Amino acid sequence: MKLSYAGIQDRRAWEEAGVRLPSFDWKAMRAETEEHPTWVHFGAGNIFRGFIARLQQPLLEQGLVKGGIIAADTFDFDIMDQIYAPHDSMTLMVSLKPDGSMEREVVASIAEGLRAGRAYPQDLEKLRTIFRAPSLQMVSFTITEKGYALADLAGRFFPAVEADFADGPSRCSHAMCLVCALLLERYRAGAAPVAMVSMDNCSHNGEKLRAGILTVAEQWRKREYVDEGFVAWVSDETQVSFPWSMIDKITPRPAKVVEEALTAAGIEGMAPVVTTKNTYIAPFVNAEVPQYLVVEDRFPNGRPPLERAGVYLTDRQTVNDTERMKVTTCLNPLHTALAVYGCLLGYDSIAAEMRDPELKALVEHIGYDEGMPVVVDPRILNPRAFLREVLEQRLPNPFIPDTPQRIATDTSQKVPIRFGETIKAYARRQDLEVTDLTFIPLAIAGWLRYLLGVDDQGRAMECSSDPMLDALQTQLAGVTLGDPASLGDRLGPVLSNPVLFGCDLTALGLGKRIEGMVREMLSGPGAVRETLKKYLKS
């Protein structure tokens, strides 16, 4: 059995292998998409293939829509050549349940995959044609937060972006410039409305996308590549909207156990590939079952009935509140606490950490005891139920191959939101005392101890990449496991830095407490574990 249109014609064999096949007419879907394109998506990776593309499938099967999604990638063209093309843009979706069972489904709602790069003029011309079509309703994105960035931390435009500004719409390559050039095609073809929907897992994602597009448009206006009318049109959200969204689903890299299970079932060609851009991707996507997509309902040219596929369509404030619930209380702070302690204690699996009584108790205290009193309630989801699902189903799922080392990446960029927001909420509340917090300070202390690059047994440990890693490790130079006095007053400038934590921890009365916890963790091998036990018992 091979994953392709021809390969799935033997429906009985696939069904005997436990794979659900699409029930709609795939050829008719492709023809309708060609004639009347409605949805383009940039970013052809796993979160798109395993979640977003899958939303269109039940709509096709119920006859609620007739066309599929056109996938485009501006970064890794090998994905299209090595994964999309050989399999007719189909994906074998494998949902991993906590009990070890797997649900298997062929997702066939992607009509075609296009390489959005200057080296592929045919594909670019196809995209131009699609953007000119009045039927186009939405353009969505999962290109990661870096995909929207036009400038470095000092505010200087990247050289490639400067080149795109100078060369103009006909010769650009950066994602934001390319999309802006495609919008220019739409403007010149009659200026039909369209929704530009970022579905990336970052705060205020629609705002980031809009800022990138408007910056490019303004730069081209200054160089007289575009007129004032185009800038006005793309700035008018009744014509070109930029809805905000919140997305939540773990789609890790392909797991060997899944590849082996599919091969044993008789499905050929399931081995992952590593592209020249170092993307690790397979014909299948393995992911957890729970998933959430909350989207601001602003679509000036109409939209698919996504609510029929489980998407929450709502207002901007609710999107923002849902994101804050997840990022500041119910998921992300727990992930970061598990990441740093998992590295220190020698774990290589988030799920395995949830079988550790101290680590499980730590994140339960952070979520239920310290987070719930100040959680933002988005009303469309129950925060306590969401947290319970995270703690009891999602994090303990042993079949989600996620590692603390991956989650520990860029922690300095995460702590001001994941912990700082809860700390600030306590400081604002008249009925709460910020100094009553214990487990969030313990998580912060664990991160500071982690920065030494030495695990709890005294062995050298590689810290995950982080833009602040060099500066923080320089600040902590000379601190030695087994010599708590070596800490000196090195943590003072760190704990009082509002950029790092979103607030001055020293001024709020938490600095000395966190410093004391770090000193306890420095007393010798095993001190991290003993410090955890001490505070969890108190």
Automatic annotation (TrEMBL):
Record's catalysed reaction(s): D-mannitol 1-phosphate + NAD(+) = beta-D-fructose 6-phosphate + NADH + H(+)
All residue ranges annotated as the Mannitol dehydrogenase C-terminal domain in the record: 323-476
Cell wall biogenesis/degradation in keyword set: no
Keyword Oxidoreductase: yes
This protein's UniProt keywords: Oxidoreductase
Domain Mannitol dehydrogenase N-terminal: 40-306
Pfam families membership: Mannitol_dh, Mannitol_dh_C
InterPro entries assigned to the protein according to its UniProt record, in alphabetical order: 6-PGluconate_DH-like_C_sf, 6PGD_dom2, Mannitol_DH/Oxidoreductase, Mannitol_DH_C, Mannitol_DH_N, NAD(P)-bd_dom_sf
Protein name, UniProt field: Mannitol dehydrogenase family protein
Signal peptide: none
